[in-house]
Amino acid sequence: MSEQLPGGVAPNDPMSAYVTLYPEIVQAGSLQNALQAEADRSGRRLAVELTASPGWRHEAARVEADGRSAHVHMGLTERSFSVDCWTSGVHMASGDTQNLSEAVGALHSWLQGPGVRELVAQWPYLRTWELAEAHERGEAVPVRWRRLRESAARTPGSALHELVESAFAQERLRALSPGRSMYWLTFSRRAAPPICHDLPRAMPIGNGRYRVFVGGRLLEVDGAAQAVAAILDGLPDDAVPQRQGPGTSSPEAAS
């Protein structure tokens, strides 16, 4: 006869590591089953799904509706249900609770469509952040520009600082969402996924020179002003910001 752990779980069962911290989850067979049962008991209409990652099929689950989703997974070293709320690919809120019913409550609330501030007020174990709220207001682009400029300004006079400020001075670039990819300064029509990868980008390479990737070609130019001029020359006609969220960001809002 093979040895069994408390609750009748075999040592080689994927849930065996969770017997002590999550007895009710082990009894249900998976986090998905336990969340669904709790939602049904509390009268909350939720369709809890398996996570998309096969390795987490027992320890993680998700819900989704109308462009919103939330993911839950279990901590291994201490009892904790980690909840992450998303909308249109943007991470909006996150938090940990030891209470399964609180996890279910937050999942249900998020899919009802509240703002993130309302959500975290209702479920204080969750937290949100500036960029999430900016996405909700449709003002992510100016916030991303401000944060990028603040970051570059920590090394005043650096090649990156000059590049960022030169780009920000141009209305067409100021209207786009800026980003950093490795050493590149990038631009996107959208601040939320899917991020555009077809627009020109630039990076400092030392001695006041910059590398610019535009139209499938790599150029090297002297000075931030020349790098930005090359970016502008290579911008396609459709390089305009796309509407996101309940509002839109404008170049003026970034000033």
Report a brief summary of the structure.
With 255 residues, this protein is an alpha+beta fold. 32% of the residues lie in helices and 24% in strands.
The total strand number stands at 11
Helix count, per DSSP? 9
Largest sheet: 6 strands, antiparallel
- Report strand order across the widest sheet: 1-2-3-4-5-6
Instruction: Provide the β-strand percentage band.
Output: 15-25%
What is the arithmetic mean of pLDDT? 90
Query: How many domains make up the coordinates?
Result: 2
Distance between the ends = 73 Å
Order of helices and strands: HHEEEEEHHEHHHHEEEEEH
What shape does the CA trace take?
elongated
Q: Structural class of the helices, strands and pairings?
A: alpha+beta
- The value of Rg in angstroms is 24 Å
Uncertain segments are 245-255
Helix content: 25-40%
Which characteristics define this entry?
single chain; 255 residues; alpha+beta; 2 domains; elongated
Layout of helices and strands, plus pairs?
Layout: H1 23-28, H2 31-41, E1 49-50, E2 60-65, E3 68-74, E4 81-87, E5 90-97, H3 100-111, H4 116-122, E6 126-127, H5 130-137, H6 140-152, H7 159-168, H8 171-174, E7 177-181, E8 184-188, E9 201-206, E10 209-214, E11 217-222, H9 224-234
Antiparallel strand pairs: 1-2, 2-3, 3-4, 4-5, 5-6, 7-8, 9-10, 10-11
